[in-house]
Design a protein that fits this description.
By secondary structure, this protein is an alpha+beta fold. It has 8 helices and 14 strands.
């Protein structure tokens, strides 16, 4: 998943929302648990206060005294964190043995006739949770206050243990939810991946239509794409037919003009024949370019190179049977051309035919795939006389012939070069190891 993908955006937004929700949940639950622990602790303090009230009495002098002390050992162990005090109006104080010789520091504002729980600092600077209440008894002449306190550390320990367990549980829940989101997004977007893979198959030429079952939301899109592919194929076929018809319609009048010119004499005859040949060459060139431009980049255009080469070699062996030209091929199995078969056959046909014209005995067709650039090279080699380096550029010019004794129009190599360039390929000529000509055709691989 890349940052610009739909899957990443869905997963990232869901993960952020899950994390935000779980953090808020942890804060709220921790606060609620703390309140619960404090209320439970306050209830314990209130129970001890009622016990102390039950143990209090009024002596003959009207003073409040403790008949007995609570039996809870926490109030006996020195500085245990559990303390109590009984205070009267004259400043008399009775306290638990756990306080030893110290007193609880209770602000006057915290004293009152209603139970009041608060947090403060106890002996040795340790935090405590205390509860106070002022009582008045019928036989007593003055009110008295009971203070009960316990260690706040017990509250913090319980809260920390709860928070630790809660964080672990919420983390596991978050991981589970994010995993579920990833699975859901993957499953939900699978039809789009299937469509992308099918489109890749169409571009590679393995199929011509979007096939398979699609989700109801994207099925209309698949149907429209199939309709567009069919329409595109029909347009290309119609354009090819019209190009062929136009070529036939123009070449027939040109042939008539050429034949009529043969009956003439003088300079006019040569001019008409020359211009007619030039017009025929231009028609061939531009119609070829128009046909290739229409076919280039069409989805699903893919040609088996081995089948095309094999067919051309079989045909040319028959044509040059009298000269006993041996045409061999290797490395073409499994190679595919990302383009139209007719265009490949026209390029190769011109190259192999040209090689056969000049070869003494042997013509070789070799294919090599370059996976790094997603291209392949078709090399046509002959054992003929070759071409001087200074003449190679001249040969690629349209209508240029180095030897007028060999039949031909001089258009084959230039047409092959034009078609290759329209497919973003190239045609290069050079000397072969046998001394003949090597024509290397670089084309996109399918």
């Amino acid at each position: 998943m890349t940052p610009r993908s739909i899957a990443f955006r869905l997963v990232a937004s869901s993960a952020l929302w899950v994390i935000f929700t779980l953090v808020i949940t942890e804060v709220v639950l921790a606060g609620l648990f703390r309140n619960h622990v404090e209320r439970s602790f306050d209830n314990t303090l209130n129970v001890h206060m009622e016990e102390l009230l039950a143990f209090s009495a009024v002596d003959e002098a009207g003073r409040v005294i403790m008949k007995r002390h609570p039996s809870d050992p926490q109030f006996v162990r020195p500085l245990s964190g559990w303390y109590w005090e009984l205070r009267t109006g004259e400043g008399d104080v009775e306290r638990s043995r756990s306080l030893w010789d110290q007193r609880l520091d209770v602000p006057i504002a915290e004293l009152g006739e209603k139970p009041n729980a608060f947090s403060t600092i106890g002996p040795h600077g340790k935090p405590i949770r205390a509860m106070t209440r002022t009582f008045t008894v019928p036989d007593g002449d003055k009110p008295f206050t009971i203070i009960v306190a316990g260690p706040a550390e017990a509250i913090e320990t319980a809260v920390q243990e709860f928070v630790s367990t809660l964080v672990f549980a919420l983390m596991m829940l978050g991981v589970g939810l994010i995993t579920a989101v990833i699975v859901q997004v993957r499953y939900g977007l699978w039809p789009l991946k299937h469509m992308r893979d099918t489109l890749a198959d169409i571009r590679a030429g393995r199929t011509v239509r979007l096939t398979g079952e699609f989700a109801s939301e994207i099925k209309p899109l698949a149907d429209e794409l199939n309709a567009l592919l069919s329409h595109n194929a029909e347009v290309i076929t119609r354009a090819r037919s019209q190009a062929g018809d136009l070529a036939h319609a123009l070449k027939t009048p040109l042939a008539v003009l050429t034949n009529e010119a043969d009956r003439l004499s003088g300079e006019s005859r040569d001019t008409i024949i020359e211009q007619s040949a030039l017009m025929a060459g231009q028609i061939d060139r531009h119609l070829s370019r128009a046909r290739v431009a229409g076919a280039h980049g069409v989805l699903g255009a893919r040609t088996d190179v081995h089948a095309a080469v094999e067919g051309l070699c079989r045909t040319l062996r028959r044509i040059y049977e009298e000269r006993q030209i041996e045409i061999s091929m290797n490395g073409t199995e499994g190679v595919a051309f990302r383009g139209d078969r007719q265009d490949l056959e026209e390029m190769l046909g011109n190259l192999i035919d040209n090689a056969c014209k000049w070869a003494r005995r042997q013509v070789q067709v070799h294919a090599e795939v370059d996976k790094a650039s997603n291209t392949f090279i078709l090399e046509v080699i002959d054992d003929g006389p070759g071409i001087p380096d200074v003449s190679i550029k001249e040969v690629l010019r349209r209508g240029q012939r180095l030897d007028e004794s060999i039949p031909g129009s001089g258009l084959g190599l230039s047409i092959a070069c034009d078609i290759a360039e329209l497919y973003n390929g190239s045609l290069t000529l050079g000397a072969s190891s046998s001394g003949g000509l090597s024509a290397r055709l670089s084309l996109p691989s399918g």
